[in-house]
Automatic annotation (TrEMBL):
Domain Glycosyl hydrolase family 36 N-terminal: 26-284
InterPro entries with a match to the protein in the record: Aldolase_TIM, Alpga-gal_N_sf, Alpha-glycosidase_related, GH, Glyco_hydro_36, Glyco_hydro_36_C, Glyco_hydro_36_N, Glyco_hydro_b
Glycosyl hydrolase family 36 C-terminal domain location: 665-794
Tagged with keyword Hydrolase: yes
Presence of the UniProt keyword Hydrolase in the record: yes
Protein name, as recorded: alpha-galactosidase
């Protein structure tokens, strides 16, 4: 609920409060954002107001009338340069007279209900019952500028989002140098700033940094959100854990260059800003025109990171993701990429698809390599016609045959790109982002189409519409495989080149919007060399994104866990792949690959035709099991427990001899009504002679009794090496033919977990699972638990009559 009490604004969600007031000088003083407060009237807020009597030394006073304070020492809702505040500004403008001093003061406010996305930018949406909005109008009359600050309050989600719009009401053009989406000032700076940095195949590495002095910046200049620095960031109080302590999460609904900074000023106050990256950004706003900043999303939680993540997950599922697939269960897919890379043909694909059908896959996806003369990554992007040698019956011929097998059919495209070796580049050499007459810095042998141009957007919309309607296509993986260099558009004059990156993103959104509206039934999956463009902007159009090209289960466990801080795992697609893994050459158990992947939007990406029979059989069982638990895994509430990250935090993650800190990863996903749950316990490395482990589920109903059980697995005796001789009556030479034959006939039984206990016992006492193999004996009461092993546990609540 949004209230205005005299000069005070109070924004309440079910469990949080955000408030600010208009200062006597007209700026907006931020008062509070945190757990819900009892506020009836203006008087109740007096403790929140900073008391200023004499201004601090060596600061500039805002004006003669207000000698008590300087804007440098105030908590503000938005800030600019030139009138005393010298911190990260919210807005920066070069005025028509060349100065960059601006001074926005309060004019009026308006409260309305309901929300839709902006005209050109994606955003959250909600009905009149779900969201209220506050628009604060500010003006700088001297420079004939105006600014609107928007606050969108989603009470039942405990989410507040913000945005801003800049207007030029003057007679001459001005240069907008930055417009943030969110500014949040805090009293103190006793917080850690958490970012998720990384690289290709190494997305989402969590770093917690204390904000002591100066500035910490998390930004991208790749033209995309980037795997180098995701735009989701967090702030937390010291010692905040998964289940206790105060924290904040911040998202930007944007898919281009972004900027998040946490700055501490000379008076110990901290400011957080998020918005479009101002680096090399400049936007000419002509008279009577405006500039809309993307929306930024804030979540506050007082009960730790799990609560914050769950608030965001709920919000993203209800008010960001939309369309046919918003709540529909996602199909289990097989993707051809790691099975055959570019070396595809109808014959090979059909062979793979038959195997896929055999194990229970529902959707077959043909990845890269199907169009133009595409034999490797050096040509044909832009020429979206099936290669007649590889697919003699075209897309339609193949899709009909795949459909005939009882599978849905999906394809890969990369619409934003062109290879120089392509018909499209020959026809339109000026359609790319490159500087005419200057050498270009190449990335993956391809160039980026200038999506800021209307005719390029139209080409993408039409060429993709042609592809999507040419066959029975129910899934599209939309890839984007290079980062920007040589920013330049031949469609813009020199003084507007600072607009190229943003105009590209707007153009991309128009293409995505048009195509998802034209093809509402298609399940679209975003991708950018893995997770190079993973953000809420993409999720407003595509309900899932390929999280990383790294399919190694150990890396993936960490990548998925770190995505889960800001994103629901149903938005992160995750596949089981072959071993040794193609990115790391690591071997991890097939069960672990399955168990890690099944917490995301689940699929396989391996050559089923070449796998061992027992592996295909195992996959068949995995798929059948997944189908049974799909709803809980895709739509349930996700809880993090112990984590590999704990080792990094305790500084004890190094030793493999005795450290359990950081060695276990523990996840639980609980159905909406709390009666069903799936848990995972995963281990990094074996700790010798450490048999006892406990799995602590979370989110169960304390007073409901659950049936707790595991899967009955059997283990190949080859996994025990020559230890087989400790039970064999005759000597078996390791890897000999006898060993081989025996391994086909004899399997070792895995352990059984089978309890009936109340939710509170399971959660608070923990489930003491069967002892792990500790070098002193193995039988069916012992957990086969080598490096990178994991277990799934199932909890079925006994519904009370
Ligand atoms: C990117 C994607 C991969 C695959 C290839 C195809 O790297 O992330 O999943 O689709 O492109 O070229």
């Amino acid at each position: 609920m949004i209230r205005k009490e005299k000069d005070y604004f109070i924004l309440d969600t079910d469990h949080t409060t955000y408030c600010f007031r208009v200062l006597p000088t007209g700026q907006l003083e931020h008062l509070y954002y945190g757990r819900k407060l009892h506020i009836e009237d203006e008087a109740d807020m007096q403790p929140l107001v900073e008391k200023h009597v004499f201004a601090p030394g060596n600061v500039n006073l805002y004006n003669e009338e207000q000698k008590a304070y300087s804007l440098e020492d105030m908590r503000l809702e938005m800030s600019s340069y030139g009138k005393g505040d010298i911190r990260e500004p919210f807005v920066e403008v070069v005025n028509a007279n060349g100065s960059n001093t601006i001074d926005f003061v309060y004019k009026e406010a308006e409260i309305t209900k309901g929300k839709e996305a902006f005209a050109e930018l994606p955003g959250s949406y909600g009905s009149e019952e779900e969201v209220e909005q506050l628009c604060i109008r500010l003006a700088d009359e001297g420079n004939e500028l105006a600014l609107e600050l928007y606050y969108y309050v989603y009470p039942s989600c405990d989410i507040i989002s913000r945005s801003a719009k800049f207007y030029n009401n003057g007679k001459k053009a001005v240069q907008l140098k930055r417009l943030m989406s969110l500014q949040l000032d805090f009293d103190g700076h006793d917080y850690a700033f958490t970012t998720f940095h990384g690289a290709w195949a190494r997305e989402m590495k969590r770093s917690d940094m204390p904000v002591i002095a100066g500035k910490l910046v998390n930004a991208s200049y790749t033209g995309t959100t980037s795997s180098r620095a995701n735009s989701f960031v967090m702030l937390s109080r010291p010692k905040t854990t998964e289940d206790a302590g105060e924290c904040f999460g911040f998202h930007l609904i944007y898919s281009g260059n972004h900027y998040e900074a946490a700055e501490v000023n000379s008076f110990g106050k901290m400011r957080l800003v998020t918005g479009i990256n101002p680096q090399a950004f400049s936007y000419e706003v002509v008279p009577e025109e405006s500039f809309q900043a993307p929306e930024a999303v804030m979540a506050y939680a007082e009960k730790g990171f799990n609560q914050m993540s769950q608030r965001l997950h709920h919000f993203i599922r209800e008010h960001i993701i939309r369309g046919t697939w918003q709540k529909k269960e996602r199909p289990i897919l097989l993707n051809s990429w790691e099975a055959s890379y570019f070396d595809i043909s109808e014959k090979k694909l059909l062979k793979l698809a038959k195997e896929a059908k055999e194990v229970g896959i529902e959707l077959f996806v043909m990845d890269d390599g199907w169009f133009g003369e595409r034999m490797d990554d050096s040509s044909s992007l832009g020429d979206w016609e099936a290669n007649a040698k590889k697919l003699p019956g075209g897309l339609k011929g193949l899709s009909d045959k795949i459909r005939g097998l009882g599978l849905q059919f999906g394809i890969w495209v990369e619409p934003e790109m062109v290879n120089v070796k392509s018909k499209l580049y020959v026809a339109h050499p000026d359609w790319t982002i490159e500087i005419p007459g200057q050498p270009h810095s190449e990335g993956r042998n391809q160039r980026i189409l200038d999506l800021g141009r209307r005719e390029v957007q139209d080409y993408i919309i039409e060429s993709m519409s042609k592809v999507f309607s040419s066959a029975d296509i129910s899934y599209v993986k939309w890839d984007m495989n290079r980062t920007f260099s040589d920013y330049y558009s031949t469609a813009l004059p020199p003084e507007r080149q600072g607009e190229v990156a943003h105009r590209y993103v707007l153009g991309l959104y128009r293409c995505m919007k048009e195509l998802t509206e034209r093809f509402p039934e298609i399940l679209f999956e975003g991708c950018a060399a893995g997770g190079n463009r993973f953000d809420l902007g993409i999720l407003c159009y595509f309900p899932q994104i390929w999280g990383s090209d790294d399919t190694d289960a150990l890396c993936r466990a960490e990548i998925e866990e770190n995505y889960s801080y800001g994103y629901p795992l149903s938005a992160v697609s995750a596949h089981v792949s072959a071993c040794p893994n193609h990115q790391t050459l690591r071997n991890t158990p097939l069960e672990t690959r399955f168990q890690v992947a099944c917490f995301g939007s689940f699929g396989y990406e391996c050559n089923l035709c070449d796998m061992k029979k027992e592996e295909n059989e195992a996959m068949k069982e995995q798929i059948a099991l997944y189908k049974k638990w799909r709803k809980v895994l895709q739509q349930g509430t996700f809880y993090r427990g112990r984590s590999f990250y704990d080792g990094a935090q305790s500084g004890m993650g190094g030793s493999v001899l005795a450290d359990e800190a950081g060695n276990q990863m523990e996840w639980t996903c609980v159905s909406e009504d709390g009666t069903k749950a799936v848990g995972m316990l995963m281990q990094k490395l074996v700790v010798p002679n450490m048999q006892q482990q406990t799995y602590y589920p979370k989110g169960l109903l304390p007073d409901v009794r659950y049936h707790f059980y595991n899967r009955k697995l059997k283990y190949n005796i080859k996994e025990f090496g020559d230890l087989v001789n400790t039970v064999s009556p005759v000597h078996i030479k390791q890897d000999s033919l006898t060993h081989q034959v025996l391994s086909k006939l004899v399997k070792m039984d895995g352990e059984t977990e089978d309890f009936h206990a109340y939710g509170d016992t399971l959660m608070y006492g923990g489930v003491h699972v069967s002892p792990a193999f500790g070098g002193t004996g193995y039988n069916d009461k012992v957990r086969h638990y080598p490096d990178f092993a994991s277990r799934l546990y199932f909890m079925d609540g006994e519904v009370k009559k």
